[in-house]
Amino acid sequence: MTAGPLLATAALALLINILITPLVVRIGCRSVSRWITVPVGDAIQDLPSRWRIASGATALILWGSAASRAPLFDRITSSNPSIDGVISIVFAILLVGLLAALLTALVRVDWLSQLLPDPLTLAMITSGLLFHYLLNPDYLIHAVLGAAIGYGLLWAMAAAYKKLRGLCAMGRGDFAMTAALGAWLGWQLLPFALSLACISGLVMVLVQRQLWRLPPQHGQPEDLSRASFLNHEIPFGPALAVGFILAWVQIG
């Protein structure tokens, strides 16, 4: 895609993302409202400007990477662009803008509540499958397999860990979000994304460990022991989001 259409479509993806991100965050918050306190719900919906900026930047990054590799984009840059191609591009822009909003909402809800809302993970799975149906139908089977393998793989790992240690290391939301990664990336790239997510998660754990040692007046708990830190739950959703974005850009 040449510079002109790329900038125009990127601007549209950004506009869509700006408009729908607050709505998606509210939907995510309401879907978990029965399991969280009112202050946590208010904190989730009170979306700071830096989160909105991050969501918009994510939309631009994801769209720029997608536009650089999807062969369908040639249909609107040729001398006789296809009507079907133009319509598909418009829907693809909408889906990428939605994807960035979903990632932002999932990260925020999971970070503040340790929950990944089913409506958002299901929307991410559906939008990923629809994206490939519009832009590259031949890849749709890989996306379907990616979603199935993503869910099954993490479910099996969590079940094995629970049997060995008697502890639940991950929840159903983590399985669904991994399935969403597979729906967007395909089964071939899913291991790469999960590897990046694990590395990102490890970095987050190390950062959290350092923050745990700060004095209580910085908002940290009074019990700073190693055992207390190991009992502290750290959400995996943000790491999955980082792994997905890095993998998406890498294949662009």
Description:
- This protein is mainly alpha-helical.
- The chain has one domain.
- The protein is 74% helix and 0% strand.
- The protein has 10 helices and no strands.
- It has helices at residues 3-31, 38-45, 49-67, 83-113, 118-135, 140-165, 172-185, 190-212, 226-230, 237-250.
- Helix 1 (3-31) packs across helix 4 (83-113), helix 6 runs antiparallel to helix 7 (172-185) and helix 8 (190-212) packs across helix 10.
- The radius of gyration is 19 Å and the shape is globular.
- The two termini are 13 Å apart.
- The mean pLDDT is 87.
Short description:
The chain has 252 residues and is mainly α. The protein is built from ten helices and no strands. The mean pLDDT is 87.
